[in-house]
Design a protein that fits this description.
By secondary structure, this protein is mainly alpha-helical. The protein has 10 helices and 2 strands; from the N terminus they run ββαααααααααα. The chain has a two-stranded antiparallel ribbon. The radius of gyration is 31 Å and the shape is elongated. It starts with a strand and ends with a helix.
Length: 252
């Protein structure tokens, strides 16, 4: 499909030549023709030289943070009382981890094939990732405060009416020791679950730093590409060989 544009006084006319062999509907062909640009989608050697291997390192860290979110989220889900109602209802450790991995993959691809289009997509995703990272810090903080192991060490908890109104017997010394050991285990489990949430909060803060760094680096690369293009256009050295050729061969 080819799209041509003609402008007049206050009027812009688009002429669309559709491809009859394409399976896409005409609207999709128009969007594809408007969005696709060989200059935007072609690999730029200048971008490759400026980016070097920085985006690959940041992308690997993104993927690592995403895997940790998913792995530790599974531990919280499988533990008794480790996940709050918000975590169970939304499953945010999994989609946050998937988003982190997506940011990392796009960053690595934008370095391996550094076209302006991919770099712009990488910048947009990382700017959106700032909001997701802040949201994950808030969600993990809420989950950390809502952890409570309710039913551990409550052996006499029963909903039977008669057992609740029956006079309780004095616990034996063995039962007291077992109760103390259970309470110690409960405190240890609570500490471990809160530590896992603290690690996830630290990883979310690291993800916030990563998305800001990736976005800033992508913006810097795009600006350097624009400066390089302007420099080539306005550089008088590009016209020097032609001038030398004309002056070295004067017209007789």
């Amino acid at each position: 499909m080819s799209i041509t544009m003609a402008k007049a006084d206050g009027v812009t006319v688009f002429t669309v030549t559709s491809d009859p062999q394409s399976a896409c509907p005409p609207l999709c062909q128009i969007i594809k023709g408007l969005c696709y640009s060989p200059e935007c989608c072609s690999v730029s050697q200048h971008l490759r030289k400026v980016q070097r291997s920085s985006q690959s390192v940041l992308g690997a860290l993104h993927i690592m943070v995403g895997l940790f979110n998913i792995g530790l989220g599974v531990i919280l889900f499988c533990s008794l009382g480790g996940a709050s109602y918000q975590m169970f209802s939304t499953g945010f450790p999994f989609w946050i981890g998937a988003l982190c991995m997506l940011f990392g993959i796009i960053g690595i691809v934008s370095e391996k094939r550094p076209s302006p289009c991919l770099v712009i997509i990488n910048v947009i995703l990382n700017l959106a990732g700032v909001g997701f990272a802040i949201a994950s810090i808030v969600l993990y903080s809420i989950n950390m405060t809502n952890i409570w192991l309710w039913s551990m060490c409550d052996n006499d908890y029963n909903y039977d009416y008669y057992s609740r109104h029956r006079p309780t017997a004095t616990p034996s010394p063995g039962e007291e020791i077992m109760k103390e050991k259970c309470l110690e285990g409960k405190e240890l489990a609570l500490m471990l679950l809160r530590s896992i949430n603290a690690v996830l909060i630290v990883l979310s803060a690291l993800e916030l730093c990563l998305v800001i760094s990736s976005a800033a680096m992508g913006i810097k690369v795009l600006r350097s590409s624009e400066k390089e293009k302007d420099k080539k256009i306005g550089d008088p050295e590009s016209y020097k060989p032609l001038l030398e050729e004309v002056t070295s061969n004067p017209v007789a």
